Amino acid sequence: MTTESQRMVEVYRKRAKRYDVTSNRLYLIGQRTMAYKHLALEQLALRPGDTVVDAGCGTGHNLPLLAEAVGPTGRVIGVDLTDAMLEQAEDRVRRAGLSQVSLVQGDLTTYQYPENVRGIIACFSLTLIGEYAKIVERGYEALDPGGRWVVLDYRLPRWWPDRLIPALGPMIAPFGGDVSMVQRHPWEPVQEGAARHRMLTRYGGWVYVAVGEAPQK
Ligand SMILES: C[S@@+](CC[C@H](N)C(=O)[O-])C[C@H]1O[C@@H](n2cnc3c(N)ncnc32)[C@H](O)[C@@H]1O
């Protein structure tokens, strides 16, 4: 495991039990996390019977919504590095009785995708991973032609002055990040690898949804 991955596991093991509650605090500063997730999920354009991967699924917020979109004949796979986050996700899946959902503990840089993937979604996970471009590339290799890569994440809006970047540190630190991560641009490989792409932004440009359609092989 890389040093970065080890650090992530340490951070998210500590945060797992209270992750959902602490994430909800973002609503106090006007963020509408679930609305952004619904927007991102819609962009996957899933149909009953599809296979979809939630990359960095955390406590599994998206899993019931994805399960609904692919129906009982579909397949939802949640992948995450941190055992404690997956335990929360497992609880959620069990309580909701979602038989089409499976969970995999693994690193997205090496994860072996199954066949016939129609959609991959990564919510607030790729910016935390230095090798995000490799993850996006491997995702495109796994996606069926026309299948979609959807990334929901934060980015620095153009209007934010460089001299105020250090002020973001305390906002990023609880998620295992630091201000150097503003240089990470996961939407770029999503766009570069796509036959067609689009970008939606919310929250004054801080939040984006990047959508790429996988090309013919
Ligand atoms: C901020 S949380 C987001 C969780 C979830 N997607 C959500 O929207 O609530 C980031 C997640 O990415 C996972 N993660 C970080 N690095 C990873 C990696 N290399 N491979 C797989 N998961 C990773 C962490 O364990 C954590 O659960």
Report on the architecture of this protein.
It is a single chain. The longest helix has 14 residues, at 83-96. It is built from eight helices and seven strands, in the order αααβαβαββαβααββ. With 217 residues, the chain is α/β, with parallel strands linked by helices. The model has no long low-confidence stretch (mean pLDDT 94). Helix 5 links the parallel strand 2 (75-80) and strand 3 (101-105). It has one domain (3-212): Vaccinia Virus protein VP39 (Rossmann fold). It has a seven-stranded mixed β-sheet. Bound molecules: S-adenosylmethionine.
- In percent terms, what proportion of residues is strand? 15-25%
The CATH topology is Rossmann fold
Give me the secondary-structure category: alpha/beta
CATH architecture: 3-Layer(aba) Sandwich
Question: Residue ranges: pLDDT <50 for 5 or more in a row?
Answer: none
Helix content: 25-40%
Report how far the terminal alpha carbons are from each other. Answer: 31 Å
Rg, alpha carbons: 16 Å
What is the CATH C level class, in words? Alpha Beta
The outline comes out as globular
Question: Which small-molecule ligands are present, each listed once?
Answer: S-adenosylmethionine
Total helices: the number is 8
Identify the strand order in the major beta sheet: 3-2-1-4-5-7-6
Number of domains: 1
Order of helices and strands: HHHEHEHEEHEHHEE
* Major β-sheet annotation: 7 strands, mixed
